[in-house]
Amino acid sequence: MEVIIRFAKYLFVGAYPHGPIGGLLLTLVLCSIAGLLSFAVGLIGGLMRTAKNRLIRGIATVYVEVVRGIPFIMVLFWFYFLMPRVLGRPLTEVPTSIYALTFFFGAYATEVVRAGILSVPFGQHEAAASTGLTPVQATLYVILPQALRNMLPSLANLYVSLVKDTSLVYFIGVVELTGAATQVMRRESWAAFQLFACILVVYWIICSLLNLLSDRLERRLLA
User: Fold this and answer.
1) What is the CATH number of domain 2-222?
2) How much is the pTM?
3) pLDDT tens by residue, 193-204
4) Would you kindly state where each structural domain of the chain is located, as residue ranges?
């Protein structure tokens, strides 16, 4: 019990054994920032994937197909080991994790947005055009609001996957939830089962809350 209490201190307060932010708080920060950025990437990518211009559509297609064919841990290592050489300067672990999560899940968000846009009946496009709206206005005011409702279940699944994949960033030294548990376990190896049972429950709670929020939003939008 003592080690669980000690771990809970770092789980909710900060990095282990010291630091301004870490554990659960850092996991939530990573999920929030990467989730917003990946949706922004997905929105742009989804519009590109449904564009009439073949070049624009092709660029987005290559991005999606490449990323969907590789595991997240590979993308994480690319950003951590290769990006500093490309940029000519080092990158710290937390920003690197956010970039990698955004790049990886942005590809999946692109497909979610594309599917949402294609799910809107073509008659809605014609109706918007008949009212005098430009293609951009029709997309912003008519198509995307309807597509968003259709995206919600898929977006919820995407963000649940994002939450779970943040556990992999501890491989590059980020002391988020799994990283904090790993560091405590190295000093209290006898409590490995209790520690990882604890973070299992925490991840399950976060993912369940996301699913619950998605269900409520979906019911409200469809009411």
Assistant:
1) 1.10.3720.10
2) 0.87
3) 877 888 888 899
4) 2-222
